[in-house]
From TrEMBL:
<keyword id="KW-0807">Transducer</keyword>
<keyword id="KW-0812">Transmembrane</keyword>
<dbReference type="Pfam" id="PF00001">
    <property type="entry name" value="7tm_1"/>
</dbReference>
<keyword id="KW-1133">Transmembrane helix</keyword>
<feature type="transmembrane region" description="Helical">
    <location>
        <begin position="6"/>
        <end position="23"/>
    </location>
</feature>
<dbReference type="InterPro" id="IPR000276">
    <property type="entry name" value="GPCR_Rhodpsn"/>
</dbReference>
<dbReference type="GO" id="GO:0004930">
    <property type="term" value="F:G protein-coupled receptor activity"/>
</dbReference>
<dbReference type="GO" id="GO:0005886">
    <property type="term" value="C:plasma membrane"/>
</dbReference>
<keyword id="KW-0297">G-protein coupled receptor</keyword>
<keyword id="KW-0472">Membrane</keyword>
<keyword id="KW-0675">Receptor</keyword>
<feature type="transmembrane region" description="Helical">
    <location>
        <begin position="35"/>
        <end position="58"/>
    </location>
</feature>
<protein>
    <recommendedName>
        <fullName>G-protein coupled receptors family 1 profile domain-containing protein</fullName>
    </recommendedName>
</protein>
Length: 73
């Protein structure tokens, strides 16, 4: 259950970070982004990614299957 959850958190977090960077660029002239502000924005984005991915934990199911050669996966 943890693997799909972590994969999606990282994917969502990366997408939101790139989105934040693309929004910040046009505003650069009248906007001063400090390191503290950037850290706050990134923390909020990764928190949103984490919370948005929590339903995956409840929708993911671990099951075993047997391949044609008899190996268990």
């Amino acid at each position: 259950k943890a693997v799909p959850f972590v994969e999606l958190v990282v994917a969502h977090g990366s997408i939101l970070t790139i989105l934040a960077i693309s929004f910040e660029r046009p505003l650069k002239a009248g906007y001063k982004c400090t390191i503290r502000r950037a850290m706050v924005i990134i923390s909020i984005l990764w928190s949103v990614a984490f919370v948005a991915t929590i339903p995956v934990l409840f929708g993911t199911e671990l099951s075993q299957a047997r391949y044609n050669d008899g190996s268990l996966v």
